[in-house]
Amino acid sequence: MWLQKCLQEHRESCPRNPATALLPSRVIDVGPAEGFQAPYIHVSKANETGEWAILSHCWGQKIGYVTTSANLHSGLGSLQHDALPATINDAIKITRDMGLRYLWVDSICIVQGSDIEAHADWMVESSRMRDYYKNSVVCIAIDDAASDEEGFLGHTRPAEVRIPVSTQYCPQDTDAPSTLYIGTDIAHWTSMMDYRPILSSRGWTLQEEVLTPRTLHFTAKQLVWECQRHQSYESNMTAQSWPMNDSFHEMPKRYFLVPDFGRNYILSSDYPFIAKVLDPGDRWISMVINYTKRSLTVQSDWLVAIGGLAQELQAQSGYNYCAGIWAEDIHRGLLWRLYGLGQTPKSYIAPSWSWAAL
């Protein structure tokens, strides 16, 4: 319901380009919604277009099934249900139920390993992630699972009465009536960039949060839908406009997906002091602060995991990018400091003058 409503009613603010969106190099073909087809890795043809979901997840300490050079060629791309982690199987089902044919999962659609083929594949695919995220239809975010082995379907949630209730009232500063929605306590969702204590601890997920046009969050308590125009909850199925607070206005997601829509929204709002978020330098600094609070399993991915955001900001601003800093904002880019104890990387990642060096 949420997905279809967004696709039909939010065309100006929530992008969808099925005719021009090139499929990722590999996707999981989940089969049609009706009937059953065993999922397999589909290798896209040149200029093949389509619609896909992406999975935002934490792999966990124990790495389950991943695609390697060996199993990709020997198994001809087939995926056995019993071999896949629970989260991947659940994501395949959700993708099929939403009426989408393809699913992109990093651990399955990028060749993993330390051999030459895996390294070459990683170099190509990591440079394309910006397009994979940005052109996806929806992101399936598993917010509160620390491992792919946990899964996210079929978990028992606390019993809640889900009766949407709303009432009309007039705020003190205006005579215009507004709608007040009453439901489960959702205060922790007022700032989407600050929530998700498990998923948001992973460095790679920042790109997924900012660049994907729509997200279906599977939290420990309920489903939450997020797009450019609406935020909806399983405990209150009535679609609501985004909360009118500072954290909403300052969310960088708005200005990456549809920059003109976000810019016009800011300029027409009653919050002129937050127009600073339109400045590319300010937007980048806020994301670096967010990003550096996260962790990566592979330290050498430090700049790669934020590279898609850099590509998008460069395309919008025309700024010149180098090792996490913009030439046009270099006077601020070099004024960084480290809080706490730093750790010198074992191998070279970035020049010593960049925040990415530590």
UniProtKB/TrEMBL annotation:
Domain Heterokaryon incompatibility: 52-208
Domain of life: Eukaryota
Pfam families, per database record: HET
Family matches, as InterPro entries: HET (IPR010730)
Protein name in the entry: HET-domain-containing protein
Organism from which the protein derives: Hyaloscypha variabilis (strain UAMH 11265 / GT02V1 / F) (Meliniomyces variabilis)
